[in-house]
Amino acid sequence: MHWWADGGVEGYMVSRRDPKTGRHMCLEKNTCAVQNTDVLFATDSYRLTAQGREWLRKFFSSAGAFAYAVYGHTDSRASDEYNIRLSQNRAKAVAGVARQSGAVVDRVVGFGERRPIAPNNSAANMQKNRRVEIVCYRYPSP
User: Fold this and answer.
1) Which residues form the OmpA-like domain (predicted)?
2) Least reliable range by pLDDT among 1-10, 75-84, 102-111, 118-127
3) What is the domain range of residue 67?
4) Can you state the angle between helices 80-100 and 50-62, rounded to 10 degrees?
């Protein structure tokens, strides 16, 4: 799979061709789920809660994508090194449930505190930053 841009169309390419046109098919890639890690994990842990594991099983069995990427994020309360490791381990835990559910996981990355969606200046904003993002790879609709 690789990135391709041609004639105003860009996306991930696979070694498949449209049977009608013979052209390579671009894939649609979008963030299909963002789950707060407070729901999935205990504080300061990468062990999934029973509730989090069940939510993930249901999600991966119904999302309808052919592959996924999983990105872990934290707030800024601990050191950068610690947060990278925690977010990576959380992303791996989510990817593990995906694979157990029969899903293909293409990418697993922990970003730590490096990609916040809100300033880490309040408890509410820090909670927004503690998240796991799941990206779905799908074939375009005809």
Assistant:
1) 28-140
2) 1-10
3) 28-138
4) 60
